Amino acid sequence: MNTSDRLHLAAVMTATIGVAAFGVWISSPWSWEERAAAAETTTVGVDDRLRAELARTRAQLRTATRERNQARRAARRVWRPTVDHALALASYAYDVPLRDLRTVAACESTFNPYAKNGQYLGLYQFGLPLWSGLAFRNFARTDPYAAALATAKYVRDHGHWNPWECASITGVGR
């Protein structure tokens, strides 16, 4: 095959790819068998490219999923030190025993500031009526600092743990 024939073949194959997608055959000196073979060859090439692109997309998805899961694990590791610091700060600020704050928080939410039980939310499972009457009501109930400080202030000001059932269960405040 000389250069002219190769160029003609390349042009016909390119046209066949573009036009065959619409089910239209262009006129060519090739026989129907040659055109079918050329179309099949180009389809195989397209399939290979699609498979390769699909493999790349799946690899990117796996990478993104792995990164998202790593970020979630890192966020979980950050929660506990933040909660510990919030409890220590509240204990120091309002002179409430740290052991009591930890015990009730562990019972109410297992130290999870996003814990939810019906209408109750946060580290100390505040309901909206109680939360709206506290000094920290402008903060989210899921904020561990606001929840710990609000709880410690309430206990200091009122002298009891009555709003928290876990306090009576665990024997805190007796």
Word description of this protein:
It is a single chain. With 174 residues, the chain is an all-alpha fold. It has one domain: Lysozyme (Orthogonal Bundle), CATH 1.10.530. Helix content is 68%, strand content 2%. It has six helices and two strands, in the order αααββααα. Strands 1-2 form a two-stranded antiparallel sheet. Strand 1 and strand 2 form a beta hairpin. Helix 1 packs across helix 2. The longest helix is centred in the middle third of the chain and has 63 residues. About 4% of the residues have low confidence.
Question: Which short descriptors sum up this protein?
Answer:
174 residues; mainly alpha; Lysozyme; two-stranded antiparallel ribbon; 6 helices; 2 strands
Describe how the helices and strands are arranged.
Blueprint: H1 3-20, H2 32-94, H3 98-109, E1 116-117, E2 120-121, H4 128-131, H5 144-158, H6 165-170
Antiparallel strand pairs: 1-2
Helix pairs in contact: 1-2, 2-5
Query: Average pLDDT across residues?
Result: 81
Radius of gyration: 34 Å
Main β-sheet, spatial strand arrangement: 1-2
Q: What CATH architecture do you see?
A: Orthogonal Bundle
Number of helices: 6
Question: Can you count the beta strands?
Answer: 2
Largest sheet: 2 strands, antiparallel
First CA to last CA: what distance? 100 Å
Helix-strand sequence: HHHEEHHH
CATH class descriptor name: Mainly Alpha
Q: Which bin fits the share of residues in helices?
A: 55-70%
Categorize the overall geometry.
rod-shaped
Range of strand content: under 5%
Helix and strand content put the structural class at mainly alpha
Low-confidence stretches: 19-25
